[in-house]
Design a protein that fits this description.
- The chain is mostly helical.
- The chain has a domain at about 30-75 and about 90-105.
- The protein contains four helices and no strands.
- The protein has helices at about 5-15, 20-50, 55-75, 85-105.
- Helix 2 (about 20-50) packs parallel to helix 4 and helix 3 (about 55-75) runs antiparallel to helix 4.
- Keywords: Coiled coil.
């Protein structure tokens, strides 16, 4: 494996008219794509459980409310001060995952 020098990277960026900000946007989009794939996977599991009637209607409503909160929290907003909301969002995602796992086990 060859080592890449910073000058080589800069040269490639200049030759291809690639802006570093564009690369940052691509990275952000890749992260969003991964999160979306995870959400879709959880929704697929959820749908299978609902279809197999392994989950009660009240539990369905609770999980759907949690998913709605997660999706609403992830909507693009103006950049705000750093807060605890990220930790809260991650906890909500974990709660939904745990609920689904617990239902699958029972």
């Amino acid at each position: 494996m060859a080592l890449v020098k910073l000058e080589d990277i800069k040269k490639l960026l200049d030759e291809n008219k690639i802006n570093l900000k564009d690369l940052e946007k691509v990275t952000e989009l890749e992260e969003i794509k991964k999160k979306n794939e995870k959400i879709v996977g959880l929704l697929d599991k959820f749908e299978k459980m609902v279809n197999n009637k392994k989950i009660s209607a009240s539990k369905v409503n609770e999980i759907l409310e949690n998913i709605t909160v997660i999706l609403n929290d992830n909507l693009p907003k103006r950049k705000a001060r750093k807060s605890n909301s990220t930790a809260q969002k991650e906890k909500k995602v974990e709660d939904v995952e745990n609920q689904i796992e617990n239902i699958e086990k029972s």
